[in-house]
Amino acid sequence: MTINSETRFLIVGLGVMGGSYAKALSRRGCSVSGITLEQKDIDYAVAQGIIARGSTVPDPGLVASADVIVFALYPHTFVEWIERYQHLLSPGALVTDVCGVKTSVIKKIQSILRPDVEFISAHPMAGREGSGIEFSDDAVFRGANYIVTPTPSNTPEAVEAAKEIGRMLGFGSISELTPERHDEIVGYLSQLTHCIAVSLMTCRQSEGMELYTGDSFRDLTRIARINDDMWSELFLLNREQLLMQMDEFENEFRRLRSFISYGDRESMREMMRESTRRRALFDKKKQGDQ
Length: 290
Prior knowledge:
The chain has about 290 residues and is an alpha/beta fold. Helices cover about 50% and strands about 10% of the residues. It contains 11 helices and 9 strands. The longest helix has 24 residues, at about 180-200.
C-alpha cells in the first residue's frame, strides 16, 4: 500500500493521541474520519477541522471506506474491537496502533485478524499529560521518535507504509525494533520514568509543598499527572520487563546513596559526570539538524 495525501484514514479513539494523529493527517490534506464514544468529541473534532466526519459507533460505511485504520485505544479495548468488528474492514486495509506495549498485543491481534487485513504496529514516543481531544496537539510529534515494530508476519510494504505514516505525522526520527526489544526499551525509557515520577510525588505528604518548589521538581514530576487507567494496564502487560528495570534503577540509586553515606565525593562526581555525558544524547534535535 502506498501512503500519500489520497489515503483515507480512520482514527478509532479520538483522545489526545488519536486527535493528534487526526490533526496532523488532516493538515497534510488526507481524508480523515473518526470513531469515538462521545458525540461531543465528534462534534468538536468536526468543528475544529480535525476530522471530516465521525461516529460514536463502528459505522459499517465509515469503516469499510478506510484504507488505513489507526487504533488509539487501550490495549484490551483494541483487542475487543478487532474481535467484534473486524468483519467491517475492507480487504487489503492496513491496521496500525499507538499502544505502548507491543509483544502481547501484537501476538493477540495477529492471531485473530483476518488474513486479508494486515496489522503493523507502531509507537509514537510523544504525548501530553491531559486527556481528551481538546488537549490533542500534533506539534508534539515534531522532533520526536516513532518506532515501528514488525514481526515475520508483516510484509515489507506494510513496514514501509507504517514508516511513511510516521513521516507524514512529522516525527523527527523513525526506527524499527522487534516487539520484544521495544518492550525492553520502553520499560526503561517510559514506564520506569512514570513509576519514578509517581513515587516521587507520593513519598511526601507535607501540605503546601507547591509553594516552595522550583523547576527541578516540576520537571521531574511532569508525568506524575497520570492516566491511572491506561498506565496501570501498560505496567501489567509489560510486568516482567518493568520489574527488571525497577531493580536496575534501585541498584543504581543505592550506589549513589552509598557514595553520599560514605562521603565519597569523587565517586559521586564521576557518576554525575557520566550522567551529564549520557543526558546530552537525549536532547531532541530540531528537524533539519544534522
